[in-house]
Amino acid sequence: MMLRLTVRREQLDVMQAVAEANFERQLARHLRESYPQSVVKLPDGGEFAVGDLLEDTLTHLIRIGIAKARRYEMSQQSSIASFVALMFDVAPNFDEHRLCEVLFGDEEKPPDARMEDILTVLTEKNWEAIRNDYDAQAWVPPAEETVETASEAEPSEKKEKANAAAADPMAKTISGKTMSGKTMSRTMARKSQTVKIQPEMPREQPEFDETKKIDRKEQ
């Protein structure tokens, strides 16, 4: 006799959110270990080496990078990690370079393969030009991802969170806040910037190697 295991959507969302948080932590560790001296220029004018960024700031920027990579329909952690690493090591707007725009727009190749082309086609001269065009405002998320702060959230949303937490036995408490699957989106605030990140963990994907730096072609 076979037992049938039923997983509710809310429980699946929670598991995906946990996996997403683990990926963010792995990526943060990878950036600190592999690119500690890479300089990040923030929208407010501050400049910090990756190794000197506060944990909350690093996580905030990583989430912006992950969301940006997924807008290019990437699903593999290795591709997403490479995309985010380039944002930190080269420039957050590297994807706006003319060659990157062409390669990312190549519909004959799957999205993850386009990231590999970026690493092999662009030369060091191209990367240097991208560094010179560094745009710190690229760390600011698009308008559609900007939401109100938690204190300005609608009462109905707060009520939904409370009901979901009470009904979901797998609800997690993170930083003093009860979070459940249906409402597992997270709001990150930094000064006037507020970003809402929705977990979108791809299924059955290979993990990236934390110990390996991105391999850009040198010419």
Structural class: mainly alpha
H/E series, N to C?
HEEHHHHHHEEEE
- Span of the ends, CA to CA: 62 Å
What is the arithmetic mean of pLDDT?
76
**Which residues sit in consecutive blocks of at least 5 with pLDDT less than 50?**
146-156, 164-204
Q: What is the CA-based Rg, rounded?
A: 19 Å
* Content of β-strand: 5-15%
- Strand order within the widest beta sheet: 1-2
Specify the overall morphology. Answer: globular
What fraction, in percent, of the residue positions are helical? Answer: 40-55%
Number of strands: 6
- DSSP helical segment count: 7
Q: Can you offer a commentary on this structure?
A:
It is a single chain. The chain has a domain at 9-146 and 188-197. A hairpin with a 2-residue loop joins β3 and β4 (177-179). The termini are far apart. Residues 146-156 and 164-204 have low confidence and may be disordered. α1 (9-34) crosses α2 and α2 (55-71) crosses α3 (77-89). It is mainly alpha-helical and 219 residues long. It has helices spanning 9-34, 55-71, 77-89, 98-104, 111-121, 124-132, 155-167; strands at 39-41, 47-49, 172-174, 177-179, 186-190, 193-197. The protein contains seven helices and six strands. Helix content is 44%, strand content 10%. The strands form three sheets. A two-stranded antiparallel ribbon has the order 1-2. The longest helix has 26 residues, at 9-34.
